[in-house]
């Protein structure tokens, strides 16, 4: 049976004027709405006390398991304000299923899909006035679960906190939709075979931070990882999946082999590819094949994709041997065509024939 949410509103909510001021230039993940959704879990009672409450700091014991063994997972999705004033979500059930899979891998209790979706819907409904209305702005939603039991033994926590917080956001990259320069990392790995690559957990992102800083030191915006065993097979960026467009009309992306996060944007683009005149293909991609394809023209475009950044064209790949230019068509090519198709569905500018969107209010 689905949980029922209680609601306790903030005594002095943010004024409409202050929200409007924040949403003029919200940045990304800087400002937070007045409320959050929360559910508790323990090994005796299961999931209890589903609620909407004022956004507030956590009080967590210094012995809290998450602080010592990184037993936590999270998700990322958005709410979109449409031209008619309604607010919608995009494929939240997909995020809910991925969240459950991540929980399983990190030995956390699975939150039922219905309760995950309801927690998001309830929060967005209460804080709907925070959903920005500017071009490509949205309300970014961050569900997460953390091990909260104060215990230093190495075993799954018997206490867990689940919450959803929300942040009005603009473009992920401050420069807008512009080609990014990528450092191809061949020493550090994001994940290892049999590890947590397909789970959305903080440890994967923590492992990418040093390589990301080293990429910036080399003048690149982002880092792209290859496999940890042979250091040759494309995997993903620090926080986004990667796709390749070929002269033969293929949309290539590495297969979900346990090391790669099953991105909701990635899956959506594979489904939309035929409408953009592309054949979706999931197969291993050798980085040497990419370099050769950029030279002989068999690779015509590359892009990164994810919920936060949507789709971002890749302009260069750089490794220790040099810089490789990636074609960026003047009209944006298939990359921008796919991006427009996806955004048009999310913002309701075209009919959603796949049932991907759901109205909140």
UniProtKB/TrEMBL annotation:
Q: Does the keyword Transferase apply?
A: yes
Q: Which reaction does it catalyse?
A: L-leucine + 2-oxoglutarate = 4-methyl-2-oxopentanoate + L-glutamate; L-valine + 2-oxoglutarate = 3-methyl-2-oxobutanoate + L-glutamate; L-isoleucine + 2-oxoglutarate = (S)-3-methyl-2-oxopentanoate + L-glutamate
Cofactor(s) the protein requires to work: pyridoxal 5'-phosphate
Origin, by domain of life?
A: Bacteria
Per UniProt, which keywords does this protein have? Answer: Amino-acid biosynthesis, Aminotransferase, Branched-chain amino acid biosynthesis, Pyridoxal phosphate, Transferase
For this entry, list what GO says about its biological process.
Answer: isoleucine biosynthetic process; L-leucine biosynthetic process; L-valine biosynthetic process
Enzyme class, spelled out: transferase
Which CDD domains does the protein's record reference?
Answer: BCAT_beta_family
Pathway(s) per entry: Amino-acid biosynthesis; L-leucine biosynthesis; L-leucine from 3-methyl-2-oxobutanoate: step 4/4; Amino-acid biosynthesis; L-isoleucine biosynthesis; L-isoleucine from 2-oxobutanoate: step 4/4; Amino-acid biosynthesis; L-valine biosynthesis; L-valine from pyruvate: step 4/4
GO terms (molecular function) for this protein are: L-isoleucine-2-oxoglutarate transaminase activity; L-leucine-2-oxoglutarate transaminase activity; L-valine-2-oxoglutarate transaminase activity
Known InterPro entries for this protein? Aminotrans_IV, Aminotransferase-like, B_amino_transII, BCAT-like_C, BCAT-like_N, BCAT_family
* NCBIfam families per UniProt: ilvE_II (TIGR01123), PRK13357.1 (NF009897)
Query: According to its UniProt record, which protein family does this protein belong to?
Result: Belongs to the class-IV pyridoxal-phosphate-dependent aminotransferase family.
What is the protein name given in its UniProt record?
branched-chain-amino-acid transaminase
Q: Which organism is it from?
A: Propionibacterium acidifaciens F0233
Q: Its gene?
A: ilvE
């Amino acid at each position: 049976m689905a949980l029922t949410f209680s609601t306790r509103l903030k005594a002095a909510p943010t004024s409409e004027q202050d929200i409007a001021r924040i949403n003029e230039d919200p940045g990304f993940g800087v400002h937070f709405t007045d409320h959050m959704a929360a559910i508790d879990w323990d090994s005796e009672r299961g999931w209890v006390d589903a609620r909407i409450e004022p956004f507030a700091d956590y009080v967590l014991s210094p012995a809290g398991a998450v602080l010592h063994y990184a037993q936590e997972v999270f998700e990322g999705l958005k709410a979109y304000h449409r031209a008619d004033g309604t607010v919608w979500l995009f494929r939240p059930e997909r995020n809910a299923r991925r969240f459950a899979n991540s929980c399983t891998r990190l030995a956390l209790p699975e939150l039922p899909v219905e309760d995950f979706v309801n927690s998001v819907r309830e929060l967005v409904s209460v804080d709907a006035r925070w959903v920005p209305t500017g071009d490509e702005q949205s309300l970014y939603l961050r569900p997460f679960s953390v091990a909260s039991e104060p215990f230093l033994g190495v075993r799954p926590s018997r206490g867990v906190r689940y919450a959803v917080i929300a942040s009005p956001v603009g473009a992920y990259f401050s420069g807008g939709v512009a080609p990014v320069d990528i450092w191809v990392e061949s020493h550090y790995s994001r994940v290892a075979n049999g590890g947590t690559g397909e789970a959305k957990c903080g440890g994967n992102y923590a492992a990418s931070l040093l390589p990301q800083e080293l990429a910036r030191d080399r003048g690149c915006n982002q880092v792209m990882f290859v496999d940890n065993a042979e250091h040759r097979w494309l995997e993903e960026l620090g926080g986004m999946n990667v796709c390749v467009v070929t002269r033969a009309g293929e949309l290539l992306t590495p297969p979900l082999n346990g090391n790669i996060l099953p991105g909701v944007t990635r899956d959506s683009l594979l489904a939309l590819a035929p409408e953009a005149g592309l054949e979706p293909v999931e197969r291993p991609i050798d980085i040497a094949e990419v370099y050769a394809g950029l030279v002989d023209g068999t690779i015509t475009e590359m892009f990164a994709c994810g919920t936060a950044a949507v789709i971002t064209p890749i302009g260069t790949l750089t490794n220790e041997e040099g810089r490789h230019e990636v074609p960026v068509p003047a009209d944006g090519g298939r990359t921008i065509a796919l991006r427009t198709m996806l955004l048009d569905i999310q913002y309701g500018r075209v009919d959603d024939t796949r049932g991907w969107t759901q109205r909140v209010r």
